Amino acid sequence: MIPFTVVHVESGRHLYGGPLQVYYLLRGLKTRGVRNILVCPEGSAIAQAAAEVAEVRALPMRGDLDVGFIGRLRAVLRAEHATLVHLHSRRGADVLGGIAGRLAQVRCVLTRRVDNPEPRMLVRLKYDLYDHVVTVSEAVRRVLLSEGVRGTKVQTVHSSIDTERFRPGCRWPDWRQAFNLAPDSPVVGMAAQMIERKGHRYLLEAAPHVLTAIPSTRFLIFGRGPLESRLREEVTRRGLTEQIRFVGFREDLDRLLPCLDLLVHPATLEGLGVILLQAAACQLPIVAAAAGGIPEVVRDGVNGRLVAPGDARALAKAMLELLHDTGRRRRMGAAGRRIVEEEFSIDAMVEGNLRVYRGLAERRRAA
Prior knowledge:
Blueprint: E1 5-9, H1 18-31, E2 35-41, H2 45-49, E3 55-59, H3 68-79, E4 84-87, H4 94-104, E5 107-112, H5 120-127, E6 132-135, H6 138-146, E7 154-156, H7 175-178, E8 187-191, H8 200-213, E9 218-222, H9 228-237, E10 244-248, H10 253-256, E11 262-265, H11 274-281, E12 286-289, E13 304-307, H12 312-323, H13 326-343, H14 346-366
Parallel strand pairs: 1-2, 1-4, 2-3, 4-5, 5-6, 6-7, 8-9, 8-11, 9-10, 11-12, 12-13
């Protein structure tokens, strides 16, 4: 195998979502003999977690306008004799990292995780910076192709899930007591950053319909974000503070998800949705909007139900359908576990990225 030194750039500070995928990738690449160097923000969670699987270079990373980052990253690429640079983040890393790679004359890979469209003029200028683009879903790939990026330049490598950590079986006997939940209450969870595209407002619109049919239902909303105060105000206005609980950001979702009855994910834009993989790995059935890459994880009638994005009544109907049928939830949960084991393993994700690296290294050697 061609020896690789790969410089990875991740601007996220917390170890979930994209940064967690980067950690899985680093861990898998190390076992395959790849030398990993991780460029990340000073004081970030991934810097600490990745110390065992990569050489960490913590640098100032101040966002899209931090043009000084170009020089800092270029210096790392040259000093480490990088085979290629892999950019994993959008904010403060994609364009600036691509320029640094060009200046250092190092092959450049970008991972794209979101399906929101970009201005066509920007696409043409931006994606010329990269030798290859990895998308986390076919939905994201289709967005890029529709905007004019060459198909030969874009490859889908699905995000992955640690099925040893996220597994079936509630391992927290007194979890209901911890959240002040009655023993017989059906519990529906939603775990997402509180931003517009995650669709929290559709859950708040759907919840009263569910509660009319099953008054004992309780909703747990995990996460933080800029819309939190507005969402809390809406719950208060509706008089649902007892039925809908905001429980903040949790690092123990692997312990909590197997205890729930249902996960709901009404996002209107979504590249793939790592929380969907986590829920499926825990044999938790899912009700979600058929947006972006979500249908690549949630198969309607197999491991969950899909509804039209923005349709709160359909969301409520799908939730009630599953809450009324314990056997169907159990069968869907088992199907979800099989799907993630067969299609979204860490090994498959690592090998997919490694194929991209090998192709670029071969082209460089031939040149």
